[in-house]
Design a protein that fits this description.
The chain is extended and about 45 Å long. The protein is an alpha+beta fold. It has a domain of 60 residues: ATPase, nucleotide binding domain (Nucleotidyltransferase, domain 5, 2-Layer Sandwich).
């Protein structure tokens, strides 16, 4: 995961808080060089909370690893044909509609 860069940021965005760590690889060892956490005061403050956590933790790294989890997350691997962007968006929405128990317009697809 570290490849040429010796620094990696781990970012955990939970329901109520944001946590981040920065690790630096030195030889075969990893060192913790930054850590921050803060409570998310509301969904509209998520971006500000992430910035605060990185600033307060002294985290400067640009490579970030994160994961998405929770009861409201649905993960599916779908094989798609090589399509122009607009057609691909429509095809992804069509495929997603097969798996989602709610409207496609109400979700984020990636």
């Amino acid at each position: 995961m570290f490849s040429k860069s010796k620094s990696l940021v781990g970012l955990d965005i939970g329901s109520y808080s944001v946590r981040a760590v920065e690790l630096v690889k030195k030889g075969d060892a990893l060192s913790l060089v930054g850590f921050g956490r803060a409570v998310i005061e509301g969904p509209e403050f998520l971006e500000d909370t992430i910035i605060q956590v990185l600033d307060d933790g002294g985290i400067k790294g640009k490579r970030v690893a994160t994961a998405v989890s929770g009861r409201s997350v649905i993960f599916r691997t779908v094989t798609m044909m090589n399509l122009p962007d607009e057609e691909l968006k429509q095809a992804v929405a069509y495929e997603a509609n097969k798996y989602l128990p709610f409207e496609v317009d109400d979700v984020v697809l990636d």
